Amino acid sequence: MGQGWKRAGSRCQGAIGLNEGYFRREGNRGTAKRAGGRWCREEGSSLVEFAISIPVLLTFFFGLIQVCIATYTRDAISESAREGTRYAMVHGSSCQTPSNASCTLAAAAINAYVSSCPWPNLGGGTMTVNTIYPDGNENPGSRVQVTVTYAFPFRIPYIPSSTLTMTSTSVMYIVQ
Question: DSSP string of 144-172?
Fold first, then answer.
């Protein structure tokens, strides 16, 4: 075998002539001409490999983005629950403004306050807020509990959509 000759692989079988099973390279184009006059091409193989691998890579990439958004959303609803209990603990039954007017809030007002928190809703889901007083009253020393439930739509290409339900609860003592 001289220089430039290689053994034909499974793609280039059936050569005719003296050098049966061998082909000669032509330049650096990736095209090989057989000794018997037939052609063996490998030009489209990278396109096929790309077409097979790109959906897998994009699914992984967009899945990673969804996990990051879900993590951010989890932190945002935790902060919303803490903000709601902080707001409720300073608006208890003995809360008064400087003009001696009462600033006591009902559970519905606290729920509305938490729902209007300025956290961006990147996930596009729905948030439900529930405020309860486990000790039964709004007096100082009693507890207030704010529970935030968020339905996060988990959307990844090529994977069926699902909803991830996140819940965060915060409990604090009323100080005013």
Answer: EEEEEEEEEEEEETTEEEEEEEEEEEEEE
Q: What angle do CA 132, 136, 137 make, to 5 degrees?
A: 95
> What digits encode the pLDDT tens for the residues 35-81?
455 555 667 788 889 999 999 999 999 999 999 999 999 999 999 99
The C-alpha R_g of the chain, in whole angstroms, comes to 34
pTM of this prediction exceeds 0.70: no
Give the Cα separation of 104 and 95 in Å (integer): 6
pLDDT tens readout for residues 70-128 = 999 999 999 999 999 999 998 887 877 777 778 888 889 999 999 888 887 877 889 99
With CA atoms as reference, report the closest residue to 144 among 153, 135, 156. 135
Distance of CA 56 to the CA centre of its chain: 16
d(CA 89, CA 81): 12
